[in-house]
Amino acid sequence: MSHKLNILSMKVRGLRNQNKRRAIFSYLKKQKATIFCLQETFFKREDEKIWSAEWGGKMYFSHGSEHSKAVCILVNPKSTYQLSIVETDTQGRYLIAKLSIEKTEFFLINIYAPNDYREQEQFIKMLSENIAAKTDVLKVIAGDWNTTLTQTDKYGGIPWKETAYRNSIIDLMEELGLQDIYRKLHPNAKSFTYETKNLKSKSRIDFFLVSNSIVSEVKRAEIRSSVAPDHKAIFLGIEVRRGLERGPGSWKFNNTLLDDENYKDLIRFIYPQIREKYKDVESKQLLWELIKMEIRAKTIKFSKSKRSEVKKRELTLQTKLEELDRKICNSTNIDLAQDVLEAYGAAKEGLKEIYDLRGKEAIFRSRTKWIEEG
Q1: Buried b (16+ CB within 10 A) or exposed e, 8-35
Q2: 53 membership: H or E segment, kind and range
Q3: What is the spatial distance between Cα 215 and Cα 213, in angstroms, rounded to a whole number?
Q4: Residue 303's Cα: distance from chain center in Å?
Q5: CA 106 to chain centre
Q6: Residue 250 pLDDT level (bands cut at 50, 70, 90)
Q7: 344 pLDDT more than 80
Q8: With 60 as the cut, is the pLDDT of residue 103 above it?
Q9: 140: closest CA among 281, 230, 34, 257?
Q10: What does the longest C-alpha to C-alpha distance in the chain come to?
Q11: Is 345 exposed, middle or buried (0-12, 13-18, 19+ CB in 10 A)?
Q12: Using CA atoms, how far apart are residues 191 and 29, in angstroms rounded to an integer?
């Protein structure tokens, strides 16, 4: 048995005008979606009851100000899916919610990224930290990212180039196992979600990122015309099967790295640089979160490199063992066979060390799962 989960995301540039708000609500109800993610609503706390009554269903908010920011998630009034809030941003930049469909839980994140490059780095760091700490495997992130990921996603205007913020999103995708699902399904499409008034510049800055384990369940990823100014709507259709595979979990620090002298040297080297980078951060809590974010990123990179090296060494040792084994079996020279036996024993011991390390890592993962799940 499967269930349809259709999500529509759109930047609305303010909903405080009642006529515009009702027009937007009318448009949304025609889109046959289950969940709606809206950005830049200019919502204030006192608007909650009125807007919810006009919508006719549940609405969840991350508050901004009367003239800036604020995101919200609307549930189709006819839907029976259960949604609950996990985290809201005090600046109205993102909203993390948990969606339950029978026994399957999704985490839905609605984001509105800043367009000022000076704010983007802190935004992506805090978003990454909260997603990693407060969500599980199945994730869908929707919204206006205010950047493009590839050259294909931009037409006209200033020539496309990589930015630090764009690269931070790519790092986030790699770290959390996410994919740009529209580009996955439409690798060569020249489609855009934002256009300047003179049409000289177009870009795809609104997009969904979905967990790798959900990709095969996505049936549709579309860009749709909308009644909102400037931005088009984006649509995602997922078929939720019962018993959907969870896929790989979120990253956890492997404490076997604490026995690795190269890793310890790396942390000793980068820590002063991190402290210098954030020396102007006054909040101790924020500073601590930023330090953890930086160390985690370096640790993931180090671990991947180490795994790659170990895998290459394992393959080399296995090949060497096979060659030595053939020599031992086919040799009639006792002295030669003795030398080969010593080399064989050394290679076998090297392979054993690799499997011993993996055994420790397996014990660590088992303990982690036991602590988290009981």
Answers
A1: bbbbbebbeeeebbeebbebbbeeebbb
A2: helix 48-55
A3: 6
A4: 19
A5: 13
A6: low
A7: no
A8: yes
A9: 34
A10: 95
A11: exposed
A12: 24
- Pairwise CA distance, residues 111 & 93, whole Å: 6
20 CB-near residues (< 8 Å, 6+ apart): 14
And the tokens for 269? 């080297």
Q: What is the pTM (predicted TM-score) of this model?
A: 0.69
Structure tokens at 145: 């990212």
- CA 76, 77, 82, 88 torsion: positive or negative? positive
CA distance 113 to 342: 61
Compute CA distances 295 → 118, 130, 235, 252, 339, whole Å.
21, 16, 36, 12, 46
Q: How far is CA 7 from CA 15, 111, 184, in A?
A: 20, 14, 17
Tokens 């919610």, located at residue: 97
Cβ 7 vs Cβ 35: under 8 Å = yes
Residues in the chain: 374
Output DSSP code: residue 214.
G
Q: Is 105 helix (H, G, I), strand (E, B) or coil?
A: strand
* pLDDT (mean) for 185-213: 90
Looking at residue 130, its amino acid is: N
Each residue's pLDDT tens digit, 130-166: 888 888 878 999 999 999 999 999 998 889 999 999 9
